[in-house]
């Protein structure tokens, strides 16, 4: 692939990524904790949504016991992992 095409694709990708970050910053966000090792992070997020009657759209960040964090996006269609 020629260098000029790679540069154009790179700029487009960065603009698109920035647009997504701007949109997600306007969405409400919540955080919760994983209670035990047997429970998956997705299950912890679903329990948090159910217990607090959270309505979409929103971002839920789950803090794992190991100290890392995993984020999920709740939309009208379901719960999606954000990588």
What does the largest sheet look like?
4 strands, mixed
Strand order of the largest sheet: 1-2-3-4
Kindly provide the radius of gyration, computed on alpha-carbon positions and rounded to a whole number of angstroms: 17 Å
Mean pLDDT score, rounded?
85
Helix and strand string, N-terminal first? Answer: HEHEEE
InterPro entries: DUF3155
Keywords: Plasmid
Pfam families: DUF3155
Structure description:
This protein is α+β, with helices and mostly antiparallel strands and 83 residues long. The protein has one domain (3-82). Helix content is 42%, strand content 29%. The chain is built from two helices and four strands; from the N terminus they run αβαβββ. It has helices at residues 3-25, 41-52, and strands at residues 28-33, 58-63, 69-75, 78-82. Strands 1-2-3-4 form a four-stranded mixed sheet, covered by helices on one side. The longest helix has 23 residues, at 3-25. It is globular, with a radius of gyration of 17 Å.
Produce a short descriptive summary:
It holds the Pfam family DUF3155. By secondary structure, the protein is α+β, with helices and mostly antiparallel strands.
SSE layout and pairing:
Elements: H1 3-25, E1 28-33, H2 41-52, E2 58-63, E3 69-75, E4 78-82
Parallel strand pairs: 1-2
Antiparallel strand pairs: 2-3, 3-4
Keywords:
alpha+beta; DUF3155; plasmid; 83 residues; 42% helix; single chain
